Amino acid sequence: MKTQKIIYVVIILLSLSLVSAVNVSTDKTEYSSSELVTANIASCLGTSITKFINPDGNLVDIKSGEGNWSTTYHTASSPVKGKYTASASCSNGLSQTNFCVNAPGCLIEEEQCSPDWDCLEWSACGVDKLERRTCIDKNDCELDREESQACTAVCQESWSCSDWSDCSAGSQSRTCNDANFCGTTVYRPTLERTCQEVVVPSTTGTLPELPSEESFFQKYGLAILIISIIIVLAIMGILVYYFYYLNPKKDLGEVKDWIRKEQEKGVSDDHIQSVLEEQGWDEKDINAAFKKLK
Q: What are the boundaries of each domain within the chain?
């Protein structure tokens, strides 16, 4: 019995939705220039938007109203001749009608066009407890229209959540939204959870000093200095030995000839020896030269 009541309620709601379909009409279908077109909008829920479109597809006027209302359009607003469209869009659907301006009989061909509607599946139940769908005329006789009806099934929640926030005071949070706007939170994911903060060591304090690595010269500088001094002294010894022992000042034969010439001049041997000593000759070389003259 309870199931039958539910079925009756659904049937009644569907019937009401069909009866209350949006309707827009004009006071006549043929107009000349400088006339007023009166458009009547009926069975519209809430605010409706009425648009007037010329044969080129350009919007020439737009009005808004509430519930069942009427509005006007002046044909002098557009110089284009031909078939015009008046459409009304409401929360419970969309409807349109056509009229001619300076083009008698422009609707005759349209009357031969039969719409072939292809409707999408009903949407999920919205906050206003209505399901919606879009219907397309495959014959392009009429513009696409929107239909609505009372919800026939329980709204299915469809949640999507943001990333978790940073850990603060031991907890994290996030936001979640229901794409179907069911207005219920039965299947809403968790919005908060506990967490453990990661403590980052502070770098503002004094860090222990690391032992500095000794450079090459700090390790071996003293040894290098001692070796350098030994090398310098060795070089000096070699130079002294070479210049004073291995490298003779002059050939003794030249000294002997020079002594002979000086003796022939009457210079004494003592004076000759003193002159040679002043010139850097060793005493043993001087004595050897004198012996060779005897």
A: 2-150, 158-200, 252-294
Distance CA(128)–CA(152), nearest Å, equals 13
Query: Over the chain, what is the mean pLDDT?
Result: 82
- Beta-ladder partners of 48: 65
Read off the DSSP letter of residue 247. Answer: S
Cα separations (Å) of 180 from 46, 154, 183?
22, 11, 9
Summarize pLDDT for 166-213 with one digit per residue, the tens: 998 889 999 999 887 887 888 899 999 999 877 666 655 555 565 566
Q: What is the pLDDT of residue 110?
A: 53
3-state SS class at 66:
strand
Dist. CA 190–CA 212, nearest whole Å: 54
Tokens 């070796």 belong to: 227
Which tokens is 182 given? 């069911």
Q: Which residue is associated with the tokens 């000593």? A: 277
SS3 97: strand
Mean pLDDT of 95-106: 92
For residues 191 and 157, the model is more confident at 191
Q: Which residues, at least 6 apart from 82, have a Cβ–Cβ distance to it below 8 Å?
A: 54, 55, 100, 101, 102, 103, 106
SS3 state of residue 244:
helix
pTM: 0.36
Which tokens hold the place of 22? 């949006």
State which CATH number among 1.25.40.10, 2.60.40.1930, 3.40.50.1820, 1.10.3470.10 fits the domain covering 2-150: 2.60.40.1930
